[in-house]
């Protein structure tokens, strides 16, 4: 399954609240992510607010489009937008800066 990594910038002064909100992600948001093809999704937050996301999906653009069509995602993105810098008025899930994968250790049996 294809792997994707992205970054965004959380306002450093909002870091603790951002992390708290993600400990309490709404069940319907979790279900929508699952239903629209987001797999093995993780977020990592650095001290200065750099947010790194990792997700596996058959097609990230299709998974993003499917999420964009859900009502729960519209509510979540509206609430989360205030935590980020550099979005130019757009929702966070459209502000991903995708990173190129340059190495992946694929340990195979027998190696």
TrEMBL record:
Sequence intervals crossing the membrane: none
Single GO BP term: rhamnose catabolic process
Molecular-function annotations in GO: racemase and epimerase activity, acting on carbohydrates and derivatives
Gene3D superfamilies: 3.30.70.100
Classification via SUPFAM superfamilies: Dimeric alpha+beta barrel
PANTHER family: L-RHAMNOSE MUTAROTASE (PTHR34389:SF2)
Listed name of the protein: L-rhamnose mutarotase
Organism the protein comes from: Amycolatopsis eburnea
